[in-house]
């Protein structure tokens, strides 16, 4: 296996086409095909599956490509520093469930370190994609939650992928709603927790999980509960609009980030003893970078904002 072959595989994965990858690499398509056949024969498995719709990685190929990207990036750092005598930018990526406090910590990280020496990437995405991104080294860290209901399934999934979970903080369960919702007016004045019977009058908002739309991969706690009204969406901005437009609510940690979401929403304590534990995941065989450690430090500060 050579560095050229690694770069070829990465280019094919990016372009999803042998012809387009060959053009970007400035080599002939037969040469590229031959190099990939030789690499796959040496590895003992197919990296890509080829069809009339294009090229996509196999399961083992996706795992290989995760390591390949890491090797290529590290080589680029070595080449820039010691051969080209450059000062390369350092890179940090995190995948997260749709938590505004995780985004705010990411913003604080960027403001603290700046973009002159660093490149940053944040992905608010589905639970399974967070696991896959960290496994394949597309993200160094992943931010998600576990609780008594999903703990066994998620920790087993993490173990299977060579990942570990570390707790950041434990939270009570809150209903995140618009201040114009009649429940907000009623409960803010009384200070009483909101019951599920009261919430049943309004649509519950949940993030879609795509192929892994299982109750165990849901971003919202109590996902196995029967909700009389349920609306799914795939991004936080849509959720905020739905909370206002249809008086919907979503179940969350209760940590508000008004700097990002504005002052038009409130978190109401739900009348339940259920808890959720927010934490980060990472590869067991890797060392968390200094940037990653700084991000963990910043997001850990939200422990003081946990309402219970």
Fold topology:
Blueprint: H1 3-15, H2 18-25, H3 29-43, E1 48-51, E2 54-57, H4 59-83, E3 90-96, H5 100-113, E4 118-124, H6 127-135, E5 141-146, H7 151-160, E6 163-171, E7 174-178, H8 182-190, H9 196-199, E8 204-207, E9 230-233, H10 236-245, E10 250-252, H11 258-261, E11 265-269, E12 276-283, H12 290-300
Parallel strand pairs: 3-4, 3-5, 8-9
Antiparallel strand pairs: 1-2, 5-12, 6-12, 7-10, 7-11
Helix pairs in contact: 1-2, 1-4, 2-3, 5-12
Describe this structure in words.
The protein is elongated and about 70 Å long. By secondary structure, it is of the alpha/beta class. It is built from 12 helices and 12 strands. The chain folds into 3 domains: about 5-85, Winged helix-like DNA-binding domain superfamily/Winged helix DNA-binding domain (Arc Repressor Mutant, subunit A, Orthogonal Bundle), CATH 1.10.10.10; about 95-165 and about 280-305, 3-Layer(aba) Sandwich (D-Maltodextrin-Binding Protein, domain 2), CATH 3.40.190.10; about 175-275, D-Maltodextrin-Binding Protein, domain 2 (3-Layer(aba) Sandwich). It has helices at about 5-15, 20-25, 30-45, 60-85, 100-115, 125-135, 150-160, 180-190, 195-200, 235-245, 260, 290-300, and strands spanning about 50, 55, 90-95, 120-125, 140-145, 165-170, 175-180, 205, 230-235, 250, 265-270, 275-285. About 45% of the residues lie in helices and about 20% in strands.
Contiguous uncertain segments of 5+ residues: none
| Percent of residues in helices | 40-55%
Give the topology string: H per helix, E per strand: HHHEEHEHEHEHEEHHEEHEHEEH
* CATH class type of the largest domain: Alpha Beta
Proportion of beta-strand residues = 15-25%
Anisotropy-based shape:
elongated
Based on the coordinates given, report the CATH architecture of the largest domain: 3-Layer(aba) Sandwich
Q: Total domains, how many?
A: 3
Terminal CA distance: 53 Å
Mind describing the biggest β-sheet?
Answer: 5 strands, mixed
What is the radius of gyration computed over CA atoms, rounded to a whole number of angstroms?
22 Å
CATH fold group of the largest domain: D-Maltodextrin-Binding Protein, domain 2
Oligomer: single chain
- Structural class, by secondary structure, is alpha/beta
Can you count the helices?
A: 12
| Strand count | 12
The average pLDDT score comes to 89
Main sheet: which strands, in order across? Answer: 4-3-5-12-6
């Amino acid at each position: 296996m050579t560095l050229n072959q690694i770069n070829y595989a990465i280019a094919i994965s990016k372009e999803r086409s042998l012809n387009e990858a060959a053009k970007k690499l400035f080599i002939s398509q037969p040469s590229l095909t031959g190099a990939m056949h030789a690499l796959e024969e040496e590895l003992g498995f197919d990296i890509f599956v080829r069809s009339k719709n294009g090229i996509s990685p196999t399961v083992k190929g996706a795992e290989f490509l995760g390591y390949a990207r890491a090797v290529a990036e590290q080589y680029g750092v070595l080449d820039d520093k010691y051969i080209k005598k450059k000062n390369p930018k350092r890179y940090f990526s995190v995948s997260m469930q749709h938590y505004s406090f995780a985004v705010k910590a990411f913003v604080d990280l960027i403001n603290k370190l700046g973009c002159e020496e660093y490149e940053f990437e944040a992905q608010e995405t589905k639970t399974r994609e967070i696991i896959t991104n960290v496994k394949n080294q597309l993200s160094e860290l992943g931010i998600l939650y576990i609780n008594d209901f999903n703990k066994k399934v998620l920790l087993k999934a993490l173990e299977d992928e060579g990942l570990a979970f570390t707790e950041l903080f434990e939270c009570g369960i809150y209903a995140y709603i618009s201040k114009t919702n009649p429940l907000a007016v009623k409960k803010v004045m009384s200070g009483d927790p909101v019951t599920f019977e009261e919430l049943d009058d309004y649509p519950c908002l949940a993030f879609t999980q795509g192929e892994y739309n299982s109750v165990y991969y849901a971003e919202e706690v109590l996902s196995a509960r029967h909700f009389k009204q349920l609306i799914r969406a795939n991004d936080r901005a849509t959720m905020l609009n739905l909370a206002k437009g249809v008086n919907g609510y979503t179940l969350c940690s209760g940590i508000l980030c008004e700097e990002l979401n504005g002052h038009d929403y409130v978190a109401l304590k739900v009348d339940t003893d259920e808890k959720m534990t927010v934490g980060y995941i990472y590869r067991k065989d890797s060392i968390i970078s200094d940037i990653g450690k700084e991000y963990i430090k910043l997001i850990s500060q939200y422990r003081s904002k946990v309402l219970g």
